[in-house]
Amino acid sequence: MAHQCLESLKIMIYITGFSVLLIVFIQSLHRKVPIVTLEQLYIPTLNKTTTGAAAIKNNTIYFDLKLYNKNPVGIYYRPMNITFSYFPNKTTSSVPLCVYTLPGFHQAHHKEIHVRDKVVTGGIMVLPGGGRVVMRVDLVGRVKFKSIAQWKRTVIVGVDVEVDEYTGQKVMKRGIHLVRSGAAPVATVVLGICPPVAMLLIFVSLFNLRFL
After folding, report:
1. How far apart are CA 26 and CA 70, in angstroms?
2. What is the pLDDT of residues 180-194, one digit of tens each?
């Protein structure tokens, strides 16, 4: 009798451990891409408070981009491209100005990283007049999650930003979220794996009931 109880206890411990690992594995499928926020954007060419030839010929864009990893696991960023564009004369078609390449790096879970840098444009913008310039900021790249399955996600986000034509600063003082644009294949792996894993989890749960 004691031997039978011991064998039953061993089976319960084995199944419970396997169930925990299975739940962790399933949770690893539901990772989210990092939250990207444009904190600052400054275009010296638009700053009319400065004087001199240096201010007029300054084709540099200064930016502060915040990336927040809201997942319980770390993220490795592959090299990502940040494209800066603008809408000349308030048209609907944007004109690319420059591309900034962000090198790959690692980010711990529930941490934020600021990318504060500058990039030189290819030429002087055509000022639309009217007080504000509409800029476009796009970020494209890939991330890999530090988890059991090592899942990867494509990041394609962007936002239109109003910049004051007198100061060269973005109009909105708080950070602006870059939202998903285009069709990023973020759910392909999840849809292909979750159903069988879910069926296996149900089977293990029912099997556990036999020993309660």
Report:
1. 17
2. 975 333 322 233 334
